[in-house]
Amino acid sequence: MDNELIAIADQTGQRLKSKGLMIVTAESCTGGWIAQVITEIAGSSAWFERGFVTYSNLSKTEMLGVKNETLETYGAVSAQTAIEMVNGALSHSTADCAIAVTGIAGPDGGSAEKPVGTVFIAWTYKNQPSKVIKKQFNGSRHEIRIQTVKAALQGLTI
Predict the structure, then answer these.
(1) What integer pLDDT is reported at residue 114 of this predicted model?
(2) What CATH number matches the domain at 3-154, 3.90.950.20, 3.30.365.10, 3.40.50.2300, 1.10.260.40?
(3) Between 120 and which of 39, 47, 81, 82 could a Cys-Cys bridge form, CB atoms 3.0 to 4.6 Å apart?
């Protein structure tokens, strides 16, 4: 496990715990890696509520309530899907805040409009508007996924 990722998750967890907040994750391209990094930390159950791994479109709709129309119109890798994922994770949990990621880690699956390395990361808190960003990462599948986990954890404002 990457020590830098664990350190970032630990810092995130300390901030969440100090405010009495719980987090939920919804992950596609990272396949549960954010949840894995979080649960490497002893005591993370004090601030990690649950994680959803929604790799397929069906799982996004069934587990998180992502609309079929959103997937058909914008695709699984889109700001719109990331927003619906993060809101769905929050509403299907008892957490106070959520992170969602969806993207193309490669080496295949990219297009001219959405090349390999395109990732959307969304964050939200209860009773607050969601925020989403688009990132364009470079490197191998492994490197793109690491960069996604890091950006997702670092982007959570507490």
Answers:
(1) 97
(2) 3.90.950.20
(3) 82
